[in-house]
Design a protein that fits this description.
Blueprint (H helix, E strand, L loop, with lengths): L46 H11 L8 H8 L16 E2 L5 E5 L8 H4 L6 E2 H19 L11 E12 L10 E10 L3 E12 L2 E15 L12 E2 L3 H22 L9 H13 L17 E3 L4 E7 L13 H20 L4 E10 L8 E12 L2 E11 L7 E11 L6 E3 L3 H15 L13 E2 L1
Parallel strand pairs: 1-8, 3-16, 9-15
Antiparallel strand pairs: 2-5, 4-7, 4-11, 5-6, 6-7, 10-12, 11-14, 12-13, 13-14
Amino acid sequence: MRRAALRLCTWSKGLFAPSRGLTQGSQDPEKQRVFHIREACSPIHVNYVRDKLREIVGASTNWRDHVKAMEERKLLHGFLAESQKELPPRRMKDSYIEVLLPLGSQPELREKYLTVQNTVRFGRILEDLDSLGVLICYMHTKIHSAKMSPLSIVTALVDKIGMCKKSLSPEQDIKFSGHVSWVGKTSMEVKIQMFQLHGNEFCPVLDATFVMVARDSENKGPAFVNPLILESPEEEELFTQGELNKGRRVTFSSTSLLKMAPSAEERTTIHEMFLSTLDPKTISFQSRVLPPNSVWMENSKLKSLEICHPQERNIFNRIFGGFLMRKAYELGWATACNFGGSRPFVVAVDDIMFQKPVEVGSLLFLSSQVCFTQENYIQVRVHSEVASLQDKEHMTTNVFHFTFMSEKEVPLVFPRTYGESMLYLDGQRHFNSMSVPVTLNKEYLVEP
């Protein structure tokens, strides 16, 4: 039998040690939660994580059976708690999971993750992160007396994905680990780390923070989740950081340029950019010329269209959020590549809000544009909206923010209209929220 393609387990020492700040649990192998699985010849990514999710919610692998499966979930309403106090508290280690993606030890898996430059497709990694985040939350909310979970857990937000200065080789195993780090009444924050094998050691590649929400068995209303027990000062620190993250998101939303005017400093920035584009040969606000090594923002756009087939559905028969992230990322990468004139490398992903589910059969319109640049950095915004086949009404589903780095300095991007000026400032805010700008390394290769 081939080596397991994925391994899920509880706390363990050595090669699969948990991330800093997490309490160690039992080392008894008999008590470890291990699933020996392998990737089948199927287009579905990380096959057995999604198979486990289908088992947890009772979803069918056959599209024609999805209506019947959803009808059966109505019977699970009786398992839903009427208040959070009814639910048993859980520890961080109860939801801890490790997943092994054996690109090195199982070469037949590589092609799905391979770029033409012999690096790893980051869009595929986004899909894996999304599935893992949902599974982690189901581990936290598991009801031992029920065969299936009465909860519908969905991704609400990708808060932040930060990259480390490590290469991603398609010829070395990758490991994911994660756990619930904070809970509210109906929401959970999930921390996920990704490592790649270098020699005999797994080295960190990225840190990701997801926010998941629990809904009832029919995915129609909110549902309560288990409270969290903190067992060490390190876990208290993680929980406190979760509270701070929530507060930061509320503040960022309340000061959105869709709600409030730009700050005085931002207004000055936009006015100075405007003045720098006035034609000195004329005394007119209408005559605009680009400064040297600059591009009008309107000329940095790329668009794409996807037909949402049943193959890309999630366990609740909506379009899989990881698929949406992959398609948005790949378009964003192409936009940065076209703009900068060289192959860009992803530095950070943040503030991906899932505003509306995408139904199977929808037309998915993706629009990407560069909204801010600085030296070698390119900030790209991707807007997605859907239209049903029955009508032509378009509705926004997601807005994605990606920070890329080019091998060489890129042109400045200039807004021409007030709306583009707001996009520029929003891009600048997202860029400035990046914790620590990284220095480009030749081994730092994370592509679509």
